Amino acid sequence: MKLTTKVAALGVAALATLSMTACNRDQTPAGGATGSGGKPIVIGLAVANLQADFFNQIKQSVDAEAQAKGVTVQVADAGGDSATQVNQIQDFITRQVSAIIYIPAGATAAGVPVKAAQQAKIPVINVDRNAPDAPGTTFIASNSVAAAKTLGEYVVKQQNNKGNIAILQGQIGTTPQVDRENGFKQAIDASNMKIVTEQTADWAQDKGFNVAQDMIQANRNLNVFFGQADAMALGAAQATANANLSPKPMVVGFDGDKAGIQGVIDGKIDATMVQQTQLMGKMAVDNAIDIVNGKQVPAEQLQEAFLLTTKDKDKAEQYLAQHP
Predict the structure, then answer these.
(1) Which of 182, 179, 177, 170 is nearest to 143 (CA)?
(2) Is 75 helix (H, G, I), strand (E, B) or coil?
């Protein structure tokens, strides 16, 4: 009888311990955000490629806002590979995260993770890139069409409405590539300038350098290089410097990442459009919390990007110290 009583007592104690453990596992830090049923909010952040400063800026902002709001973030870096990212988001779904912040690694199969998450009733917040065939619950990005048009108009003005342009494109079909192309061409089509060559360099500086070199060899009468990302613009700037072109072509970029801003300060590139990466990361977390708690959010939330030129060095230093 005594042995039976002891075993029963141990069993009750074990059950009590398990019960407390289960309760603690579902708790969130004091003041932290919770979802339905008071469960802690866990956000899966699927990043296209953390080797790029632009995506790192967003991740840093997501981490900071999540910590401030008392929610957990699990990060998956696709390294620029769409197939890897599909698997990573499936893992998020298996873990039953509360919401997914999704920056597609490419245009190919970009809608697959969104559809899978929607089937699992997990909301998706798309940032920077959207999947036209399967948009997320909301899309947070720069207004790249308007920003690229502003950049194009600046180019036309600086070039006195004449000259030949080369465009280094990002990954073909991705949202920023398509929108930046459209916006820039709106400005150029309204001018007397001419786009004589364009080719993808996949957002990369080394590819931008090689592509720009080929463009120069094919046409030495190029007056402007537009890199649809700062990395490609910096590659083009190096290629034009090596070619000793006279007059020196104008080089402009897009993103406003640290290297691009420093490139403007150093005079390597003439202008860039600075995106509000810190704001977009913060918005993504806040929207995730709202959606999990049943609040309605806009389907599309486009933010302004800021023109930064070599005349704005004080502003450039401010952006390096605290990115918008």
Answers:
(1) 179
(2) strand
**Percent of the chain predicted with pLDDT > 70:** 90
In sequence order, what are the beta bridge partners of 75? 45
Pairing relationship of beta strands 99-102 and 250-252 according to DSSP bridges: unpaired
The number of distinct structural domains making up the chain is 2
Q: How far apart are CA 129 and CA 106, in angstroms?
A: 8
Provide the 8-state DSSP code for 39: P
Q: Is 156:169 a contact under the CB 8 Å cutoff?
A: no
Across residues 34-60, what is the average pLDDT?
91
- Number of Cβ within 10 Å of residue 190's Cβ equals 13
Q: Is 163 exposed, middle or buried (0-12, 13-18, 19+ CB in 10 A)?
A: buried
Does one domain contain both 107 and 153? Answer: no
Same domain, 51 and 169: no
Q: Which of 181, 179, 158, 280 has its CA nearest to residue 227? A: 181
Distance CA 237, CA 242 (A): 9
What is the rounded CA–CA span in Å between residue 102 and residue 57?
15
Question: Which residues constitute the domain of residue 177?
Answer: 144-275+308-321
- Mean pLDDT calculated for residue range 171-199: 97
**Structure confidence at residue 38 (pLDDT):** 76
